[in-house]
Amino acid sequence: MSIKIEPLDGPMGALVHGLESSGRLSDEDFATVEQAMYDHVAIVAPDLEENVPWMRDFTARFGPLVPHVLDQYHHPEGFEVSIIARNTGTSESRSTAKPAGAFWHSDLSYEKKPSDAIFLYSTQIPSKGGDTLAANMYLAYDGLPEKTKTRIENLTTTHRWGWNTGGATPTLTQEQLDTHPDVVHPVVRRHPKTGRKILFVNPGYVMRINEVGQQESDELLEELFEHALKPEYQYRHRWELNMLLGIDNRASMHAAVDDYTEPRRMLRMIVGCTEKMGIAA
Ligand code: SIN
Question: What is the pLDDT of residues 134-174, one digit of tens each?
Fold first, then answer.
């Protein structure tokens, strides 16, 4: 066994030592890495040489990768890999008012089948800033008052692409829009691997709670977002070059920090949904 897992201090995250971006990781070592993702919600592997086919193949072992709707940013070496670049002065650099992902969200929650996990790999980082924040939504659920847990148990939400993203998402083409209608998801999910309950709401894509009136929906969502974004549930990921960050997207939400002007470039792989979505029993 060449892989060692070192949990980070704080509400989530573990360092993965011994991962190399060449060759195929043994099934035993992969199982250790995968378990670390479920146990710690995020995993961090430093010092991995850039190898796009390896990134694609390694991350696809967590579940089938899905290409992002913004197909203009697909990587030339594989459409399952997206380029998230800013201030790089190249045609792949995004020009939205705010950086991609600079709002709290859980990837693909605006799709019928949200993502199980996402991976980001840094190929260019600013000398200051450009961190990624993540919130542990197991802890957010666990920390809710019992009466709120009971209140939200059977509620559902409507999610929409670009709903509250503050200029961080480009407008979809009509074709992209047609394949992305609003979707409904439970407020509370149960993680199929850990059995734990998750508060599955995010300010970026959740429009409303379906079973209550508009005002009650607005108030309850505000209460849930404010609760989930308490600092004690948050992890701040400080990037180093050639670092891989994996996030269990079911059990978290994340946001890119919009505080840099130098070039920043990430590769992103999104693992699709491998479960049937439904209200947590
Ligand atoms: C994302 O939300 O997918 C990107 C996050 C980041 O670039 O830090």
Answer: 999 999 999 999 999 999 999 999 999 989 988 888 888 88
Report the candidate in 176, 177, 229, 183 with the shortest Cα–Cα distance to residue 202. Answer: 229
> CA separation (Å) from 165 to 92, 99, 105, 212?
20, 10, 9, 24
Identify the architecture of domain 4-271 in CATH.
Answer: 4-Layer Sandwich (3.60)
Side-by-side strand order, sheet with 252-256: 234-237, 132-136, 252-256
Output the residue whose Cα is nearest ligand 1's atom 2: 101
- Kindly state if the Cβ of 189 falls inside 6 Å of ligand 1: no
Q: Does residue 68 line the site of ligand 1, with CB under 6 A?
A: no
* For the CA of 237, the nearest atom of ligand 1: 8
Helices (H), the chain: 27-40, 52-59, 137-142, 146-152, 174-178, 214-228
Give the confidence band of 195 by pLDDT, cuts at 50, 70, 90.
very high
User: pLDDT digits over 72-117, tens only?
Assistant: 889 888 889 999 999 999 988 988 889 999 999 999 999 999 999 9
Q: Answer yes or no: are the C-beta atoms of 209 and 218 closer than 8 Å.
A: no
Q: Which of 97, 86, 70 is nearest to 166 (CA)?
A: 97
